[in-house]
Structure formats: C-alpha cells, structure tokens
Amino acid sequence: MDDFLVIDHVSKSFGPQRAVDDVSLSVRQGEAFSLLGPSGCGKTTLLRMIAGFERPDRGRILVAGQDITALPPEQRPVNTVFQNYALFPHMSVWENVAFGLRMSRRPREEIRSGVDRMLDLVRLSEHARKRPAQLSGGQRQRVAIARALVKRPQVLLLDEPLAALDLKLRQHMQMELNTIHEQVGTTFIYVTHDQGEAMSLSSRIAVLNSGRLEQVDAPASLYENPRSSFVASFIGDANFFTGVAQEFQHEGYLRVLIEGLGSPLVQSNGAVSANQPLRLMVRPEKISLTLARPSSGDRVNAFRGIVEDIAYFGSHTRYRIRAGEHSILAQLQRSRLSGGEIDPARGAEVWMSFHPDEGRVVRLEDAA
Ligand code: ATP
C-alpha cells in the first residue's frame, strides 16, 4: 500500500514556536523510513504525534486508512523504541519482552511463544534470563526492539536508535536493524539527525528544516539531486557557487557565469530562465585533480587553483583549493590515482575539473 501511514497537513506549535509546520507525507506498508534533520527541526515532535504523546493543532494522521489523530497511544497500532531503551532493570530480558503481553492479559501460551519468537529474531535467546545491566548497549537495544515488536504493531517508531552506541557498535547495529526489519516486515520509522544513519537504514528519507518538509526521496536521489541548498549540505558535503544562468545549450545543458571562476556547463533542471541568479552545487568527490588541463573539450569544466590544505583519511584524501575568491573542496579516492589523477602537495597549482552532469542547479533562496 502506497499510503499506509499518512501525515496530512500536520502542524504543531508550542507557544510561539512552530515545531511542525504543515507537514504532509506518506509512508508505504513495510517501508523503512527516516525523519531526518538538525536539532530543533521538529522530527521528535512529529514522531510523538504519530505515537500519540502529542496532539497536532491541525491536520490528521492515518494508519491503514484509519484516522488515529484522536486515539490515545495505547489504542494506536504503533509502538515506540525510546532512545534510552526504557527497560525495567529488575526484570530479566524475557520478562521485559513479555511485559506488554502480560499487561494486556494474553493467554500464557501466546506470551511464551511470542516472547521466544522475538528473542530468537533479535538473537538474544541465550540471554533470556539475564538482567539488562548484564548486557552490552547493543544487546539492550535489541531487547527494547523485541519488547516493542512483540505486540505486533503495524508501525514501529525508533527514536535515535543508534545515538547511545559507540562507533563500531553503531555500524554493526545498522546492519542488524536492516536484518530485523527485513525479517518482521513491519513499517519502521526512524528519527535521526545523522544523515549516514538515515541513508543506511531507510529506503526513503524525509528531510525537515525548521518544522517544514524540505524533500522526501530515496537516499541516492537526495544525494544526487537535492532540491535545495539545505538538503545538499545536510546530506553530505557540497561546494556551492552563486552564479547567473547564461545561454541554454543542447540536451538541456546550461552555461552558468560564476564570477571569478568561469562559465561551467551544467545540467539545468528545467526550472531556470536566462539571466536568472542561481546556485550551483558540485560534490567534492566529483571533482578531478590533474596537473595538465583536461583535453576532452567542451564536455569538461576545468578551473585552475592552488592547493591550500590537505587532509588524509586513509581511503580518501580531501583538498581545499583556492581559485581567486573561491575555496573549493575536492575529495580523491586513493583508488582513482591510477587513472591519471594526481595527489598534489600543499601549494601545488592544479586543474580541477568536473563533468557537466555532475553540476546541480539548486534553489538560490535557501542559505547553505
Ligand atoms: P532534537 O533532535 O534536538 O530533539 P528535534 O528535531 O527532534 O530536535 P523537536 O524536539 O521536535 O526537534 O523540537 C522542535 C521545536 O519545538 C524546538 O524549537 C523545540 O524547542 C520546540 N519544542 C519541542 N517540544 C516542546 C515542548 N514540549 N515545549 C516547548 N517547546 C517545545
């Protein structure tokens, strides 16, 4: 179903503060979806409205066609995994997972088989008798997920699920969460401020900025075709150039005049007219560095610059390159060095180049 969870023109204010401002979006049944944005963008408020802890001032929330806007949390087909896991410290893992079913007075056999099945799913069967304090952070989180899933909610909300874990465990749990999601097939909605987390956990992401929805798309679309400077700079690193549209050329390419740099040819996304001011975005890893000017004619945009700073990261190196007033970030995969590219030293004069298809026109009105 394409619109399994529907957020329909939802707004919520706290006094003068508009936490969520007229947000509409749909999540598919069984999808892993993320609400992503910086601190204060309203993602937690949106999550709390889906869970039922907060009531919207305006708008509706539907699950499987049912309007749940006015239902209390316990009557919604929704459950939440909280950031701090909220486990009962005095109960065993097994009892923690059984708690919700016990409260709703399910038959003993149903509780037993449901809890066993969930502990098996999160691979904690052999730790069933332990207390939460005897578990690692990742294991505790898996208990919290099992406890939230055992009542078979139609939507599982996960609030910053990896924030409490260290880097190695976080990377491991990203994979683990994907496996759990695949096995249960429940609709998962993550809330996170971490773009890498959102990209690795979900098939689509809603990017929020100051309570408003900026863009909803698959991770690769957000990265490759951000519609605003905000999305472009929130999802990965980006070079921005302010310019003016010049003449249109064949196949939808557009020449853009960038003062102090030149006139690169880029893909126009159709919404641009001649002489219009605009912003051009190029990802650092799309920029090649060579000693000589690239010779493939018109199809390559090439500019000269001087390497100002270098940072080595093992798998890749980043360079800050000065070209007049412009400071440009380029990123080189080590594996590309064999393809004619160079690894310049600080102070070296280089050619930066990118293919017209790698330049994106984004809206000018948003400050990067
Ligand atoms: P964070 O990642 O820091 O939790 P967030 O993106 O989840 O941020 P929200 O917690 O939804 O953002 O908050 C959105 C805005 O609403 C913020 O300006 C916040 O201060 C405000 N806000 C949220 N909850 C309340 C509340 N209960 N009372 C007053 N203001 C609130």
TrEMBL record:
Q: What is its EC number?
A: 7.6.2.11
The UniProt catalytic activity note for this protein reads: ATP + H2O + polyamine-[polyamine-binding protein]Side 1 = ADP + phosphate + polyamineSide 2 + [polyamine-binding protein]Side 1
| InterPro entries for the chain | AAA+_ATPase, ABC_SmlMolc_Importer, ABC_transporter-like_ATP-bd, ABC_transporter-like_CS, Mo/tungstate-bd_C_term_dom, P-loop_NTPase, PotA-like, PotA_ATP-bd
Q: Which UniProt keywords apply?
A: ATP-binding, Cell inner membrane, Cell membrane, Membrane, Nucleotide-binding, Translocase, Transport
Q: Which organism is it from?
A: Prosthecobacter vanneervenii
Return the protein name. Spermidine/putrescine import ATP-binding protein PotA
Taxonomically, which superkingdom?
Bacteria
Q: Does the keyword Ribonucleoprotein apply?
A: no
Start and end residues of each ABC transporter domain: 5-235
Could you state a single Gene Ontology molecular function term?
ATP binding
Gene behind this protein? potA
**Subunit arrangement?**
The complex is composed of two ATP-binding proteins (PotA), two transmembrane proteins (PotB and PotC) and a solute-binding protein (PotD).
Purpose of the protein: Part of the ABC transporter complex PotABCD involved in spermidine/putrescine import. Responsible for energy coupling to the transport system.
Which segment of the chain is annotated as a signal peptide? none
Question: Which family would the database say this protein is a member of?
Answer: Belongs to the ABC transporter superfamily. Spermidine/putrescine importer (TC 3.A.1.11.1) family.
- Fetch the Pfam families from UniProt: ABC_tran, TOBE_2
A GO cellular component entry from the record: ATP-binding cassette (ABC) transporter complex
